[in-house]
Specification:
The chain is α/β, with parallel strands linked by helices and 363 residues long. It folds into 2 domains: 148 residues, Four Helix Bundle (Hemerythrin (Met), subunit A) (Up-down Bundle); 207 residues, Translation initiation factor eif-2b, domain 2 (Rossmann fold). Helix content is 38%, strand content 16%. The protein contains 11 helices and 14 strands. The strands form 3 sheets. Strands 6-5-4-7-10-13-14 form a 7-stranded mixed beta sheet, sandwiched between helices. It has a 4-stranded mixed beta sheet with strand order 11-8-9-12, with helices on one face. A 3-stranded antiparallel beta sheet has the order 1-2-3, covered by helices on one side. The protein starts with 21 loop residues before the first strand and ends with a helix. Bound molecules: 5-S-methyl-1-O-phosphono-5-thio-D-ribulose (MRU). 5-S-methyl-1-O-phosphono-5-thio-D-ribulose binds next to α2 and β9.
Length: 363
């Protein structure tokens, strides 16, 4: 059963900041079930560890910052139900919950970052009362969501300076509101510019095999009144050749210390196409997506997903049922193809390693 804690933010107010994607209800984590979009806007509510694990693994909630927020809030929701009066026992059980959630997906570093932050906050506190420990965990998880919302807005402000009236923007996968607690990363500059009357056209790569571009990016931009055109992934070269794309902006799941960026499979190809067509290619990320422990992109763990995502695409048999399939969920774009990294503190330019180290030294 729940303790008499309120779902509060760091100022002591009940949190109701995020209307949609990842939200905390009293005692429960609420998520949009993104696997059902765009046909149905369905929410799931849970405080069950295995349901939250499964939601992250099956991409009910996805996108690096959203995964981090969902894991933190999920850990807080699940851990409210731990029944013990002992600090040591509570921490042991909370860490077990955290370890399980960390096994859900390997590439987005925000997952590990958010869980680690919550666990450390509780462990490093001097609190002995278990109700107070639960509140401490809850506060930290809510801070992660609040910071995510602020981060999105700042990325939007910095990135929107790159956007001018009439521009065509190509994006890959979904790095918008559905991938974060708020405006998104790659799409945030678009939302900010759009809100100021700048006329833009977004080309949204369909993003095979799970179609985050056509199902999610097109859906959320359309709802916001942004002019969006969905293209199949193999059309990007032609669209660029026709001069329709002035800038590419994508998100990332993990950025290495040298600026190499892992993002949805296909991003690397888009970056090569952009270079060939002399189109600037930007990656938009919060600092929490930078992994200093990873020196370069070759060390980023790449998730391998079930072959049936390819054998059975579009809800039907799209390949022989027994055909061998290779299905990496992400690829790594080398820093040499990246014109700039848009962060909540400004736009980083090469050489990235020095700039990244400087940021962390100052933090
Ligand atoms: O497999 P997904 O849908 O979780 O992949 C998401 C992406 O590749 C996003 O571009 C990335 O996480 C950045 S989200 C702001």
């Amino acid at each position: 059963m729940l303790d008499p804690v309120r779902w509060i933010n760091s100022e002591g107010k009940i949190l109701d900041a995020c209307e949609d994607n990842v939200k905390l209800l009293p005692g429960k984590l609420r998520l949009i079930d993104q696997t059902k979009l765009p046909e149905t806007l369905l929410y799931m509510e849970t405080d069950d560890l295995e349901e939250i694990f499964d939601a992250i693994k099956r991409l009910v909630v996805r996108g690096a910052p959203a995964i981090g927020c969902a894991a933190a809030l999920g850990l807080a929701a699940v851990s409210q139900n731990i029944t013990t009066a002992s600090r040591g026992d509570f921490i042991k059980k909370m860490k077990k919950n955290s370890t399980r959630l960390a096994e859900s997906r390997p590439t987005a570093v925000n997952l590990f970052w958010a869980l680690e932050r919550c666990v450390s906050k509780v462990e490093n506190s001097k609190i002995s009362d278990v109700c107070e420990l639960k509140l401490c965990l809850l506060r930290e998880a809510l801070s992660i969501l609040e910071e995510d919302i602020k981060m999105c807005r700042s990325i939007g402000e910095h990135g929107s300076r790159l956007l001018k009236d009439g521009m065509g923007i190509l994006t890959h996968c979904n790095a918008g509101a559905l991938a974060t607690g708020d405006y998104g990363t790659a799409l945030s500059p678009v939302y900010v510019a759009h809100s100021r009357g700048v006329k833009l056209k977004v080309y949204s790569d369909e993003t095979r095999p799970l179609l985050q571009g056509s199902r999610l990016t097109a859906w959320e931009l359309g709802k916001a009144g942004v002019d969006v055109v969905t293209i199949c992934d193999n059309m990007a070269a032609q669209v660029m050749k026709e001069g329709l794309v002035n800038i590419v902006i994508v998100g990332a799941d993990r950025v290495a210390a040298n600026g190499d960026a892992a993002n949805k499979i296909g991003t690397y190809g888009v970056a090569i196409l952009a270079k060939y067509h002399k189109i600037p290619f930007y990656v938009a990320i919060p600092y929490s997506t930078i992994d200093l422990a990873i020196p370069d992109g070759s060390k980023i763990p790449i998730e391998q997903r079930d072959g049936d995502e390819i054998r059975r695409g579009f809800g039907r048999q799209t390949a022989p049922p027994d055909v061998k399939v290779y299905n990496p969920a992400f690829d790594v774009t080398p820093n040499s193809l990246i014109s700039g990294i848009i962060t909540e503190k400004g736009i980083l330019r090469p050489p990235y390693h020095e700039k990244i180290m400087e940021i962390f030294r100052k933090a």
